[in-house]
Fold each of these.
Amino acid sequence: MNNSWIKMNDESYVPVELKGYRDGLRLIIDSDASIAEIESAIKQRLANLGNSLAGTMVRIEQQNQSLSPQDISHFYSLMQQEYGLESLNAGDEIITMSRLTSSSTEKPIQGIPADSPGASVYNEPFSTDKEKAELIRYTLRSGQMERFLEGNIIVLGDVNPGAEVTASGDIIVLGNLRGIAHAGALGNIAAAVVAMNMEPTQLRIGNVITRPPARKRRRKPMMEVARIKQGNVIVEDFEEF
């Protein structure tokens, strides 16, 4: 029986997958799918990421070479015009999965594929494996942005109003969080935001957005953690992940 027929009739089958690397995103396409199916899956997948990844570089990779240059150009234009993503090496040859597997030593942060309607996020199980993290050794001031799509971000300082931090994993601020924080930026709703003082202008985990209500500042700073519980972002005293 034809493998393409089996895939197309599998209810769990999706034709696109998103992964994060240091230089940006990879959109992996199963080009056995129709152009309409691929375009629909791209829209569904990227619509859940919001605008916090605008300006991020993205490269298309195929599982085979059946897509034409015109098709690839169309998908790049779609991602740029509707979601603000920039093409990575757009003039270069499109990388195929066989080349990626044989030549790349990078370990990606797994995103989620476009799934059935309503399944727009994933809940990654807790792992004791070592994870990548980027260490920011200074306070982020208004207008500054730090983005790390390979794992977690740790800030040794404050995140001031007007500053923004985005990570595919957790965000840890060893200071005051008063700007924007987006953890689980590729859709992981199990991600968390930890800070010494939690007063963000906007807090986002996966595709859930909130702004904690105003409250009295504590006399003594205490670590707090924000995470999703029963579909809502809850801020509480930090005890453990």
Amino acid sequence: MTTKSEKLYEQARKVIPGGVSSPVRAIKPYPFYTASAQGSILTDVDSNRYIDYCMGYGPLILGHAHPAVRNAVADQLEHGWLYGTPIEAEVKLASKITSLYPGIEMLRFVSTGTEATQSCLRAARGYTGKNKFLKIEGGFHGAHDAVLVKAGSGAATHGVPDSLGIPPDFTKHTLQVQYNDIDAVTEAVESNRDDLAAVIIEPVLGNV
């Protein structure tokens, strides 16, 4: 039974567009509402338990409410939680990440994946002086306009906006090819070489 979740969804639809704060949560006929989580288990407001295979869509690699993470968060809260200035911890974390991954020479911390991919594409365009980028059909790279496209016709196509409110001009430099089609990727890169700034792909495709 998910009676409480159903009632919460009815309330949510009155104050939140679509009843959810992200389209990925728009489960039919309504999503379940989580009350708590521990380890790999989610418990909803109706006391149903679920094995969580999403883990916050990536970042919860230690599971929910891991004691070490919980203690570290509690310790930091004693010192404040939002400064708006640089802090020593970010320097230490950046140094740790770059030491573990030789291919990452420098990095910048951001708040969302959308912000990260938007910044990466902007940097690629700025560095190369080129405009286009190639993505894989079905790949998710955040919610900024340039990546919210669906495929047109042909192996490699200019993106067509996948949402109302996105002018076609915003996606005219977005190219798409089907997943695992090496010939299409090669053709797209070769035919757009003079104006191709980047190729962006998810390490693990979640929508294919």
Amino acid sequence: MEKPFIKNGRFHIYSLDLSDLLGLMNNWDNNTRTWDVLYRDYTYQELGFPTAVNDDELIIKGLLFANGQYEMPLLEIMDTINNVHSYTSSACSIDFGAEVKHKYELSSTINLQEENNRLQVSLAMGQRIIFVKNFDVVVNLEDKELVVKQPSYQFTSPTKGYIKVTKPEVIISGSVASINGYYPPEIVLLVKKVDNPEIMLKESVAIIDGQFMFELELEKGTGLYKVTVNSVMAGPRGPAYIEITNFYVECWEGE
């Protein structure tokens, strides 16, 4: 924004800044030296938000119907306890009808904490807030499915997103389809205890003839662990890790 100023006793503010802040549609006619301003009145329909989910990732989607816009809508989710914002947010115009009416498909994704989450979802056009809602979400980890984000990978173990073990070890095995005539050389496991945000183990597992297998030892014993399985890509600043899947292991030794 440009800085407002006072000149000859009058307060001056740039029209673009004002329209961005208040969500105005404006048009300056230099011939008549007039500024036509349209204040848009938005309406919305709330279809509800989840109070419980079976995953540690939440996706909120929405639709926005509007006439021609200068600003793209932004749908955002925020974890108000940990001040964490959604890591992906997208908006695309998917339909053009009569009289330049646009239909926007909105999506936003946030990582959840393992238990209770207090979230705020907001929809904005520029700096103008159209909608805001606070709600609580509980994560039911015991019902988590194993979601594989890269379809070329298949897992024979584990097959669920949450498993219980009585010994501090887990078998991770599966296969990967040939990509462009070659197999990726390895996967990388990142392991942490849920009550400690630090990565306690980083392990590279070789892929041989499209197969991988590793016996993971849970060195810290009893507790809840999160295991993230990643593929590896070369990057300009070193290897980049892209998540394939993640799962949780609850270890109760001696039972």
Amino acid sequence: MAKTKELSKDVRDKIVDLHKAGMGYKTIAKQLGEKVTTVGAIIRKWKKHKRTVNLPRPGAPCKISPRGVAMIMRTVRNQPRTTREDLVNDLKAAGTIVTKKTIGNTLRREGLKSCSARKVPLLKKVHIHARLKFANEHLNDSEDIWVKVLWSDETKMEVFGINSTRRVWRRRNAAYDPKNTIPTVKHGGGNIMLWGCFSAKGTGQLHRIKGTMDGAMYRQILGENLLPSARALKMGRGWA
């Protein structure tokens, strides 16, 4: 993982001299105790630039080798919530010492950015299949049909673990990839429970639910909030 020490100019010149003398890559490598790939790289550079010294770099050299970049990218793909400190420790264990800033710059060059993880409802497979089935069945419905739909639901959200913002490394347009989200459930203490509704024309009334909701309370909520919301939104006849 750690970068190897660069060869001195004398060794590089010796490799070129032996190549000019007609020796092959393997023979040169064996005689000088170097890798064949190293010998080949030096000779190719000499053929192209007619020099064995390193060319001036446009900026500071990369502190993480290509293998190290591949390692941290693999880690982040599998665990998007991996922190920069975790990656610093992983590289340190592999022999490369870098800072958290270097980790961040490397990930951004690879097309990733640090974003707040989106909070989404925790769904079982049966829920996912049911929603997908509904979406496919109504995929070609016209806009006129959806304008007549008034959606309603009640919720009380409690985040698993610490109720704070978590960040993930992800690419653009990947916000709702399951690996990049935090699942939430409709139970837990400390939060209020709300009922609300909306349609293509806007939002309806919002009602706070006190106590445990049963069938009678739910019908009362619909009677006091759903119909007034439909009238306020001018849903017209035939709304659902």
